Amino acid sequence: MNRSRSIFAAALLSLAAFAPSLAGASSVPSYASLPEASLPDMLHPKDAPESITRSEGPALIHSERAFSSHTSHLMVTALEGRCVTLGAVPPGAVPSGAETAHFRGDHGSVPIRLEQLVTNDAGAASLEIDDGWLDLKTENVRIETTTRVPLARLAKGPTDEIAVYGFRSGGKLHVVLPSKRSLAYVDEGGGVGHAVCGHARLTLDPSSKGGSMILAAGRAILPDKLVAPRPTSKPQQMLHAQLQQRSTGERQRGFQVSVSTSRASRDKEPLLSVSVTWTEEEPPPNAQASNAGFEEEFPDHEVHLLD
After folding, report:
1. Distance between CA 216 and CA 257 in Å, rounded?
2. Would you say 254 and 283 are in contact if contact means Cβ atoms under 8 Å apart?
3. What is the predicted pLDDT for the residue at 91?
4. Domain residue extents for the chain
């Protein structure tokens, strides 16, 4: 496993060395300007209610029970890009969770945390953290508290899927990455993981003497394009050009994000560095649009329409 992690991390580092930077990743805010928040601890199991008779509000999870010869397991899937954490966690731990979580048992209530990245058209972003209880028997959920953490945008790519957000908490930098598709990452300790819910939240320690760094890689859907033949003044060819217009359809392109902090003795505050790069060339239009270049290659070709 350690060898696999090393290979994966080395591959991401090699990509970062040669990949072109994307627009929007050059103006990085200072570390001190980032919003600071206090993340709450999860609820303690000793305070759990005996039962929850019904869920209130919109559906937040989907639950399904699996049975084995001796025990039953409840599998919980968070909805709408949320990340879920179940059960007790050590004080001070603030996990962001995963798309699914499992818990063994069929009675009593356990703590549940749901974390979601929320953005709007104006570019503002925040983390919405719901803490509550899950009844293992009725599978009902009751939310007790909701915490909203404002995020600063550290970098922006050419599509809405590529963005980097951050905030400070407990002396750490928390980096939040949208993850509409599977996002692979290497955390500051060299651990390899995959984010399969709506975002990944990773931490950096700006007080680390050797600096701190995370890497992430994923694939983004490129904006749709309308590919048209070369303009022409001939009426028949103008009609043919309209018929030949095609959408490029869904195209994907690999990208990589690196975020690092460092601080020398002369620095008043940690230095924050963010890089967003492509790892692949832009793919050409798909086969649906392949005939769009016909007019360019044969500009004088006459198009005969049937009567």
Report:
1. 5
2. no
3. 83
4. 2-297
